[in-house]
Design goal:
With about 170 residues, this protein is mostly helical. It contains seven helices and no strands.
């Protein structure tokens, strides 16, 4: 694989956070308040990054499983259907987060993090233990696996602190 093709494949996942950031920046240029701007950022991140990014992965794992296996550096297996379904769950959570409270968004971010941070650990392990430098195993996918849930949690936590009207989590 030539360098240009490798770079294109490994950086493609970054399109989703890029869309979220550009969309939020454009929509918040004349925002009436910090809270309104933060709400816009959360919605863009939830829908464009987590929602659309995960839906894209669902479609790709279902429509082109052999291509996805090659991109990750694995052989095709039935396990890819499970990955597609897990990504579909993340997409649904991302789309749901667009209309959620900050507390719900934190929970959605944590749920997404359990899958994506586990995937991140798996990608890094494959990279160092087995020399898997396939474009779907390194690069943009690592950034997305880390940032999709982390940014959602941070933005929602900030929103929860800025909005005292929303009830905070109560310790039992």
């Amino acid at each position: 694989m030539d360098t240009t093709s490798y770079l294109a494949q490994t950086t493609f996942p970054l399109i989703w956070p890029l869309i979220a950031v550009v969309g939020a920046l454009l929509r918040t240029r004349h925002s009436p308040s910090r809270q309104a701007a933060l709400e816009t950022w959360q919605r863009w991140w939830a829908v464009a990054a987590l929602g659309c990014g995960s839906l894209w992965m669902t479609v790709m794992f279902l429509a082109a499983p052999d291509t996805m296996a090659t991109a990750i550096g694995f052989t095709p297996s039935q396990f890819q259907f499970e990955i597609a379904c897990a990504n579909l769950g993340l997409a649904v959570m991302g789309f749901r987060a667009a209309a959620a409270t900050a507390r719900e968004r934190i929970t959605i971010g944590l749920g997404a993090g359990m899958f994506l941070w586990g995937a991140l650990i798996g990608h890094v392990y494959q990279w160092f233990a087995h020399g898997d430098h396939a474009p779907g195993n390194t690069g943009g996918v690592l950034v997305c696996d880390l940032l999709f849930p982390a940014v959602m949690i941070v933005l929602a936590g900030r929103a929860q602190r800025l909005n005292p009207a929303e009830p905070a989590a109560v310790a039992s």
